[in-house]
Each structure stands twice: as C-alpha cells, then as structure tokens.
Amino acid sequence: MERTVPSQILSRNDTSANWSSVNPILKKGELGIEIATDNSTYIKVGDGVTHWNDLDYIKAILTDDVTGKLTLLGTENGLLYTLALN
After folding, report:
1. HEC profile for 6-66?
2. How crowded is residue 43: how many other Cβ atoms within 10 Å of its Cβ?
3. C-beta pairs of 24-29 under 8 Å, 24+ apart in sequence
4. Bigger pLDDT: 82 or 2?
5. Count of CB atoms within 10 A of residue 19's CB?
6. How far apart are CA 26 and CA 36, in angstroms?
7. Model-level pTM greater than 0.85?
C-alpha cells in the first residue's frame, strides 16, 4: 500500500555576501541557494571538495506542467538535474 508522508525539505540558503565570505564546501549533491540583493535566486550543487566561490551556478529553468507541478531543470558540468516541486 502506497502512503504519502507530508514533509518539507529546507536547503542551505543565504545571501550572496554571506556565501562568498564563508565560502563553504557543500557536500556532494547538496544544494546551496543564493538569494541576491534583488531577490533573484541562484543555485549551486556541491561536489564535496570545491569551495562555494569556485562552484558554477546551475543553469536552470522552472517549468509548470498541466498538473500544476513545478520542475526545476538544470545542468552543471554536463549533468542534468531535475527536481520536482509539489
């Protein structure tokens, strides 16, 4: 029997200035969300060894299908990431 468990996932997020000054290493696959001063949002994906300032931003688009579910599609280092947001 399939069961749905309500949950919430919170990724690390901070301002551009804080990310740059702390310059952490994100764990492999960990998302880091940067909130710029104009409230635009940028995402990086950790590899477990590279500091924040040296990671590339993922190039992403947000799509909305007919069911109203949002999907984030992005690429980084030749890999395709998809994240369904309900």
Report:
1. CCCCCCEEEEHHHHHHHCCECCCCCEEEEECCCCCEEEEECCCCCEHHHCCECEEEEEECC
2. 20
3. 24/51, 24/52, 25/49, 25/50, 25/51, 25/52, 26/52, 26/55
4. 2
5. 21
6. 19
7. no
Amino acid (1-letter code) at residue 69:
K
Q: Are 34 and 55 in contact (CB under 8 A)?
A: no
Tell the residue number behind the tokens 């060894």, with chain if given: 49
Distance of CA 13 to the CA centre of its chain: 9
For residue 36 the two structure tokens come to 């710029």
Residue 28: how many other CB atoms lie within 10 Å: 10
Place of tokens 């909305």: 64
